[in-house]
Amino acid sequence: MPALIISTNVNLDGVDTSSILSEATSEIAKIIGKPANYVMIVLKGSIPVSLGGTQEPAAYGELVSIGGLNPDVNKNLSSTIASILEKKLSIPKSRLFLKFYESEGTHFGWNGSTF
Q1: CA neighbor of 8 nearest in space, from 53, 79, 58
Q2: Kindly report the CA angle at 3 between 46 and 16, in degrees rounded to 5?
Q3: What letter does residue 92 receive in the DSSP assignment?
Q4: Relative orientation angle of helices 17-32 and 71-89, to the nearest 10 degrees
Q5: What's the whole-model pTM score?
Q6: What is the CB neighbour count within 10 angstroms for residue 96?
Q7: What integer is the mean pLDDT of 10-20?
Q8: Strands 59-65 and 96-102
Q9: How do residues 18-76 score in pLDDT, each as one tens digit?
Q10: Burial status of residue 106 (CB atoms within 10 A of its CB: 0-12, 13-18, 19 or more)
Q11: Is-catalytic flag, 2?
Q12: How far apart are CA 100 and CA 60, in angstroms?
């Protein structure tokens, strides 16, 4: 179950967040090789963020997955997610930090149990 949580200082009022969520879901599923119905995206806007001492548009994200991550996949995910946020929210690629976590199924709760 890949899960991506993005926090940004961009105000999301009036933004078509559904297109961001659907595009990110599709791309993450494709890159990691997991079914899209397993992918969760959380997008939080209007979060105070400072990067390099400025509050220009920026974002921080964490992506956790049970399997499927490696250096090449992470590089592809970073490029793809940065492109989506640049295109949809005008966040420059240089103002996005992503952290990747590989996890075990027993560390994910779902449906009243674990994976």
Answers
A1: 58
A2: 45
A3: -
A4: 170
A5: 0.93
A6: 21
A7: 97
A8: parallel
A9: 999 999 999 999 999 999 999 999 999 999 999 999 999 999 999 999 999 999 999 99
A10: exposed
A11: yes
A12: 11
Contacts of 100 (CB under 8 A, 6+ apart): 62, 63, 64, 65, 69, 74, 77
What is the pLDDT at residue 75?
Answer: 98
Q: H or E segment at 109?
A: strand 109-110
Tokens representing residue 69 in the block:
């991550």
**pLDDT given for residue 115 in this prediction:** 82
Residue 44 and residue 33: Cα distance in Å, rounded? 25
Residue that wins the pLDDT comparison between 43 and 114: 43
Burial letters 68-92, b for 16+ CB under 10 A, else e: ebeeeebeebbebbbebbbebbebe
CATH number of 3-114: 3.30.429.10
Interatomic CA distance for residues 89 and 86, integer angstroms? 6
Q: Report strand pairing: 3-8 vs 40-44.
A: parallel
